[in-house]
Design goal:
The protein is mainly alpha-helical and about 80 residues long. The chain is about 85% helix and about 0% strand. The chain is elongated, with a radius of gyration of 20 Å.
């Protein structure tokens, strides 16, 4: 009964799109940050094990993932600030 009353007020397609984008963005940001932590830990381990090439690769992974996270945060702020 409530769903029938809310139909003219709520754009269900837009609401579903917002939920879907939020879930995908949240999982993507969580995965990028997790890979950043993994890369930092592995880089430290391989640096101690005297494997500089592998350590550099994991350091690069960390930097790329941190930049992805920073970019996502920047985009979020820019979207909220520039919303008209």
């Amino acid at each position: 009964m409530i769903g029938l009353l809310a139909d003219p007020v709520v754009d269900w397609g837009a609401l579903l799109k917002v939920v879907w984008v939020s879930v995908v963005g949240g999982i993507g940001l969580m995965a990028a940050f997790s890979f950043a932590v993994l890369g930092a830990v592995r880089a430290s381990e391989y640096r101690r094990a005297e494997s500089p090439i592998v350590a550099a690769a994991f350091t690069l992974l960390t930097l790329v993932c941190v930049l992805l996270c920073a970019g996502a945060i920047y985009q979020g702020f820019a979207f909220v600030i520039n919303k008209s």
